[in-house]
Amino acid sequence: MKIIPLKQNKNLCWWCNSPANSKEHKFKKTDFVRIYGKGPYKDSETRPNLISPSGFKFIQGPGSNHIKFDNSLCSECNTTKSQPFDQAYDFFMEFFVKNVGIILEKETVDLREVYGTNWVQEKKNLLRYFVKHICCRVASFSFQIDPQIIKFMNGDITLNNINIDFRIKLGMWVLENEYKKTSMPYTNLFLGKLRYYGYLESNEVHRLSSWMSYSCMSICYVYDRNISHQKYPGIKDFLEGPYILFKKVDLKNCPPFKPDLGTKKLIEILENSDKALDDEDGIRYSEELMDLGLYLKYLNLKLT
Ligand SMILES: [Zn+2]
Predict the structure, then answer these.
(1) Cα(83) to centroid of ligand 1, in Å?
(2) What is the mean pLDDT of the chain?
């Protein structure tokens, strides 16, 4: 079984091996600004806070280091080289935000509506944005990025080793709509726990998985050098065709909302209600590498 080795030198860009002197946002800056404005965030009622196991951190502006990964790229890779990917993502998100109600119904996005006739190239650019995020996250934990993934980032048309699934979490949709009725609307930004499979102590990790969420949409991913079509049907096909398909995570997967649950607890429940990332092939020794945390306004509104 192929393992995911640790990097020899954590200070080098995972993409091109130049000195790593640039930090990727854990959440895209445009997403952050869409929700919270350009900043600086001063109003104690509406300012964003990062919540993680180490506590609350007040975010002063969208450029805050609290919402960036450690240095894992060089500035050339993080700006010029990845600019088309960042732009494809921004287009996709603008479309998502405007059309979320219809997307929820249809469980699909037709990328021809997002990108027009250039959708073939732009779909790959969109996926490269997600792959960049995934690589920055796992590289910040010193895991090596497979050379095939780097080829994909450099223009190769196949992507092995990474599987990406798009989900809609209906519970989160309900929660956000409840908040819209108040004077404190809430939009969800969340990174799931990064989970590893294998033994970290002896450097025998062979799979990493996690997810990132914007509002009720989650992008779930698995990085596995042993990935196969049998295990992830469709992995060979998901670069084809103009559609992004969403799987709905039903409300029945959520425990009942109790009125006395605080916002933080509710969001954790809703975000973790998707069981699809749990072991699908009986691997028992999974561990959470970290609980990076979630982002929300520091509110304690309760659903009634
Ligand atoms: Zn680089």
Answers:
(1) 13
(2) 85
